[in-house]
Amino acid sequence: MAPSLMMGMALLAPAHAESLNFAVIGPMSGDNAVYGVALQRGTQLAAKQINAAGGVNGDQMELEFLDTQCQATQAASAAAKIAADPDVFAVIGDVCSSASLAAMPIFYRAGLTQVSGSSTSPKITEVVRDNGYDNFARVIPSDSQQAGKMVDLATKVLGKKRIAILYASDDFGQQIYGYQQLAIEASGAELVAAETYTPTQTKNFTPQLTNIASAKPDVLLIDGYYNDAGAAVSQLARSGLGDITIINSAGVDQADYIKLGGEATEGSYVFTYYNPGSPLEANRAFVQAFEAEYGEKPNEQAAYGYEIPFIYKLAIEQGATRETLAETVRGISFDGPTGTTRFDENGDVLGKSGAVMVVKDGQFVVDLDLTQAVNR
Q: Which of 95, 177, 194, 262 has a Cα-to-Cα distance from 124 of 20 to 30 A?
């Protein structure tokens, strides 16, 4: 499937209704496609429910899916295609921070609102603030929060003192690593080793893991993606780190992490920004609908992606036009599966917390005690 091309139309409007067109950008193919497919499913379910309930002020919601493969060049190309189409009302995505950063200036110049449910790099806040990108918002927290939570889990909750970090070399990995360094220093623990790798390209992690093992850490933080984390964890034993505690960053809670990492993933932790077992009424209804539609539980990308069409709907029903949508969105308060969404002056979401998952018997399970501990 060719990247940066329209992946097709979803939920076409009946002939008697007008339509509102939204572009959804993300990795629909390639190494990170699992994230894009989850985003696609979440947004499709939302649009289906919105249209079945009468649409947006009577107009039906249409989604156009464009594949960026989480690559900056392809994201910029997709953004240019969208910006040239006057029928696109607003944008959902991208997933990876590097892709969102590449697309942001194009959407800003085009006057298009962009809301992401997955791009978590703190660099996005800096770019938005420094460039006045008031058209951008994200419903998922910044990794400046996740970095501290992962360190808190390691030090305050699990009692670890010697920390090692393996981080991706992209915007996401570099930014979360930087914030983790600050959190480790503040905690009184020691960062004994740090190694980086090229996401989706590095297959042999033995050199990095061997260097880490020589520093004798008692916990390893992995800042990356499910496929890389799974491969790295599978190589722990031969690198001398077979018994080390593992804490993964958000997004690793994918079945293929366990498949790739095998038995070595058992007992490892994943910090996630979404708890599918949350007792919130909005979440229970979402999980039930998602499982009925797709036959599986939703993940982080599906849940946050699901919320964005409803946020756009609410803003439009409050009178937003294509030109005023971004300003209206930033004033929205919306209760969804991940909690209450409200935005600050930089388009960052306020007040949302994460959850801690652990791999038990080959399955991801939310540990409520650890979740409460890191959110205190």
A: 194
